[in-house]
Amino acid sequence: MKKIFIQYLLAPIALLTVLSACERDSDYVVSTPSPYVSNLDLRKLYHGADVTLTREVTRQAYILAGQVTSDHSGKNLPEGLLFVQNNRKVSASIDSLRGIAIHIGADAAKYVPGDSVHIQIEGGVLKRVNGILQITGLSGAQVEKVATGITPFLTPVSALTMLAKPENFEGLLGVVYNSNFEPNIGVERIEGVKVFNEGSGDVEMHVSSTASFKSEFLPYSANIMGIIIPSATTAVPQVWPRVKSDFVATSIVVDPSVPLGPHPAIITGYFADPDGTDANHEYIQLMATQDLDFRRTPFAVVTTNNAGASTPTGPPTGGWATGGLRTYKFNITRGTVSKGTFFYVGGYKLIAGANSTDISKANWVVSKLYSNDGGDDGIGDKTSNLLANSGNAAGMAVFATTAVDLNTVPSDVAFYAGTGNAFASGAGYAICDNDFYSRYHGDVFQPFYREGSNTGKVAANPAAAQFTFLGGEYDAAAKKWTVKRASKTVGVPKTSDLKVVQEMPGATKVVN
């Protein structure tokens, strides 16, 4: 009887609940779809076939708002195309900045970088023409300039990032720092398609026969700004400088008659323990003590990790050339560095690991994914931990040659962390005469780390998200350290600027 009563009681309650829900239609917010569409969403609509942009296709959006990045005054962009870019906020860690081209004929030349425009795209056709994804079927009358003088976003570009996801970069205004060419100096002009390397791989630059600056000589290196446009024949993304000022030569001329000193490059710091994965995010900071041209004199940087599990086990019989998981080699064969300036070797050009500030503007002579690829000349297996965080001896050395073996003397060397697994009679890591190590102790020859008096360490185990800088003062004229290095650390949040690891009090100095 009790169960029957409960059933009868619940039935009207359920009915009241349903009726109440039906009566609450006014609680729903009546909204109007946004008329604006982003380049990110537009590009998602294209799957290899032409797309007519109707409101049904774009979910009622019909206005593209964006920053103009094209500049036709230099006559090096495809005629009739207005390039714009915009950003749709997705999340703090997702990049949604995208570019796109709109064909509006001669009116495209009326707009300059920094103009903000609204474009009525309804009825246009999204398609690829000569390799370029663009909106066709529009006219200048469908473009409204709503502001001017806006500074466009500038995207740092590297071969690693751009060639991995070319779709994300197409149509953007990008900049490639320290682009290294192999020119015929004094003869070769920049006109045509030129291949350069920015430390992580090869990239193409396109300068048309119509460009007003096509007769500029091609230098050894330059900073290149421009629109990222795929090749019409190969679809490979290319950098198209818009005007002469987009191409700025940066190379220095190094006098070949000046011999290398005993320490032409020195180690000034390293980032060994990023917040998150170490794979492809660690790097080493160095400084030139004289002008260097790595085309003429190739260098190498080698790291060593002697953790107990690193193979081959036992003493490093090959020294810095041991390879496996013990040593990893980067050859430096491109670029120039001015005396007293920093340069970098490592993985991605990011200051503090994944999703941190891009520091491509620094002089990266090598940017290599060491977790994906083995070391140069077969020295080193791919590794997720280039610079050890704890345990046995870890360190790095820079050589004024790429021919490295057991007895090759480095330009500079620095060890940190533990002490073990680094030396046995006749086998070890070669050191040089610097502020920490000496090849002779009196009359006794001691060429390896942990041999004789060579027991010093530049630092202890690295802390997470800390850049270790070594400081000290090197006298280039006297060719010796006048102030011994003493390590310090600086915290590197993911939003840090490059100056955090270059302009801190106590940074290394080269004098005279």
Notable traits:
512 residues, OB fold (Dihydrolipoamide Acetyltransferase, E2P), 3 domains, nine-stranded mixed beta sheet, disordered N terminus
Query: What's the main sheet like?
Result: 9 strands, mixed
Number of helices: 4
Give the percentage of residues in beta strands.
Answer: 25-35%
Low-pLDDT residue intervals, each spanning 5 or more residues: 1-25
Shape: elongated
- Gyration radius, in Å: 29 Å
The count of DSSP E runs of length 2 or more, i.e. the number of strands, is 35
The number of distinct structural domains comes to: 3
Structural category is mainly beta
* pLDDT averaged residue by residue: 92
Amount of helix = under 10%
- Which oligomerization state do the chains in this entry correspond to? single chain
Distance between the termini: 103 Å
Question: Which helices and strands, and how do they pair?
Answer:
Layout: H1 2-22, E1 36-37, H2 39-44, E2 51-52, E3 63-68, E4 81-87, E5 97-103, E6 116-120, E7 125-129, E8 132-136, E9 143-147, E10 155-156, H3 159-164, H4 166-169, E11 173-180, E12 192-197, E13 202-207, E14 221-230, E15 237-240, E16 247-249, E17 265-271, E18 283-288, E19 292-293, E20 299-305, E21 327-332, E22 336-337, E23 342-346, E24 364-367, E25 393-399, E26 412-417, E27 423-424, E28 427-428, E29 440-441, E30 444-445, E31 466-469, E32 473-475, E33 480-483, E34 488-491, E35 509-511
Parallel strand pairs: 1-3, 5-8, 10-11, 13-15, 23-24, 32-35
Antiparallel strand pairs: 2-7, 3-4, 3-6, 4-5, 6-9, 7-8, 11-14, 12-13, 14-15, 14-16, 17-18, 17-31, 18-23, 19-22, 20-21, 20-25, 25-26, 27-28, 29-30, 31-34, 32-33
